[in-house]
Specification:
CATH class: Mainly Alpha
Distance between the termini: 17 Å
Structural class: mainly alpha
Radius of gyration: 22 Å
CATH topology: Hydantoin permease
Strand content: under 5%
CATH architecture: Orthogonal Bundle
């Protein structure tokens, strides 16, 4: 990660600068949309990224990542733990790298992606990220948060709170934070940090005490046909997919940092925030799957299973933690979905365009989540795999492009509608296509995965390698890349 700050670009008429005064105010709506952040508006320290990326993972969706390899794939406990650590490490290293680009370029992640993909080619990853964050993750976290709020209401004797009412409360809170914008998001995650860490660490200790870490491979699990090796590889993949899901947002939450904030410090703070929170809670999930009396059938509410090993008071605190953790996660998802949507080239002259788009995503997300069909316990594992299928090839392209240019971009290309190289989109599409035979999920099982279930799902490796190699070859035909 380079520590060299770019030259001043706000006087370049080719680079649109975010209008209005915002500064470090928390009780204010962030103006503008996806424009460059000028030096006068830069503020904050790299260390704030640690809690900004820790709090959103303190929720049940993270825990359920650890449940899946054992409850669904039949994995043994200790190999699953190793797989979870490995998968998170892979996803968090790249998350740190991409975060370090925020202070350097001062633009959101999907805007920086235009450097490799061009204005038109970038519609592919930006469109996918809009749907992934604004619809998929919104529904996953909102549903788990609503279930947790229902359980909390019952435990404290407030009566039976309906699902629609609980969902509405969760959605309103997360949209309010995202509507406020960058500063409110950071402050919100900081305020929640002590409570979420305290509650989930205590819950993890109780769950580990009640678990059976000697649990071995279970050949009778619902999707155990890949054997012990298949279960291990799938554990790596689902953990990787979860951490990787944040990669497409990385620079969104570091682009306001001063250009001399320090790339290493920014990247390490963000990467470790995701890594530590995910590893701890996913191991708790793996342990939870071995606790006697927990059930993971289609009619069982996952958040209700989570509190079974916990004493009553901690169960109350934990269900509240799950609910507000879902809000913490979706505040980022809604914010970044709005940013990605604007990256599609949507023209909006309103000063509060980003905030209004975030509000619109709240309405759409509520309608989708109201079905209750997308959330931990339904087709969550398929969703995690689908995320990695497209983000991995996209990641390969942006990393190779950055390396070939040695991090030197004319920032004007991030906003130039005439900058339209074809190599990035083609390499990403080829990476996705090459990975299809390795897909291993209920939606589609590729021929290689079907013939060799012991391989689990290796599509993330294939997609990354194919996209990276092909782009490295094709990009040499680009005069801009060759000069860099």
């Amino acid at each position: 990660m380079s520590t060299v700050a770019p030259e001043r670009v706000e006087d370049d008429s080719r680079v649109p600068v975010r209008e209005g005064e915002y500064g470090a105010r928390v009780v204010a709506v962030e103006p503008g949309g996806i424009e460059y952040i000028p030096d006068a508006e830069r503020h904050g320290r790299p260390r704030q990224l640690f809690w900004t990326w820790t709090s959103p993972n303190m929720e049940f969706a993270t825990i359920f990542v650890g449940v899946l390899p054992i409850a669904l794939f039949g994995g043994a406990f200790w190999p699953t733990v190793i797989g979870l650590v490995a998968g998170n490490a892979l996803g968090c290293v790249t998350h740190g790298i991409l975060t370090s680009w925020g202070p350097r370029f001062g633009v959101p992640q999907m805007v920086q992606s235009r450097g490799a993909f061009g204005f038109i080619g970038n519609l592919l990853p930006a469109g996918l990220n809009t749907v992934t964050a604004g619809v998929g993750w919104f529904a996953v976290n909102s549903v788990s948060g609503a279930f947790a709020l229902q359980t909390f209401s019952s435990l404290v004797g407030w009566g039976n709170l309906g699902f629609t009412e609980a969902l509405a409360i969760i959605v309103v809170l997360q949209v309010v934070v995202a509507f406020g914008g960058y500063n409110l998001v950071h402050q919100f995650e900081k305020v929640l940090f002590p409570y979420l860490v305290g509650v989930f660490v205590a819950a993890t200790i109780y769950i580990l005490a009640a678990s059976h870490p000697g649990t071995g491979f279970n050949a009778h699990a619902p999707v155990a046909f890949g054997g012990a090796s298949g279960a291990f590889i799938l554990a790596v993949f689902v953990a990787y997919g979860y951490a990787l899901g944040w990669n497409a947002f990385a620079a969104d939450y570091s682009r306001y940092l001063p250009r001399n904030a320090g790339a290493w410090r920014s990247g390490i703070a963000a990467g470790m925030g995701v890594f530590i929170s995910c590893v701890v809670l996913e191991i708790a999930g793996a342990a939870l799957a071995t606790v006697a009396g927990t059930a993971w059938g289609p009619n069982d509410i996952p958040t209700a299973q989570f509190i079974k090993p916990l004493p009553h008071t901690l169960a109350i605190l934990s269900t509240l933690g799950i609910a507000i953790g879902a809000v913490a996660a979706n505040a980022l998802n809604v914010y970044s979905a709005a940013v990605s949507f604007l990256t599609l080239g949507i023209k909006m002259g309103l000063r509060q365009r980003r905030a209004l788009v975030a509000l619109a995503f709240g309405v759409v997300g509520f309608v989708v989540a109201r079905t209750g069909e997308v959330g931990p316990g339904s087709k969550y594992e398929d969703f995690l795999l689908l995320i990695a299928y497209w983000i991995t090839p996209w990641l390969a392209v942006v990393l190779v492009d950055y390396a070939m240019r040695r991090g030197r971009y004319d920032e004007a290309v991030f906003f130039d509608v005439r900058h339209n190289p074809w190599q990035g989109a083609l390499a990403m599409a080829a990476g996705i296509g090459a990975s299809v035979p390795f897909w291993n999920q209920s939606i589609y099982q590729g021929p290689i995965a079907f013939a060799h279930p012991e391989l689990g799902d290796l599509s993330f490796v294939v997609g990354f390698v194919v996209a990276a190699v092909l782009y490295a070859v094709l990009a040499r035909t680009s005069p801009r890349t060759r000069r860099s």
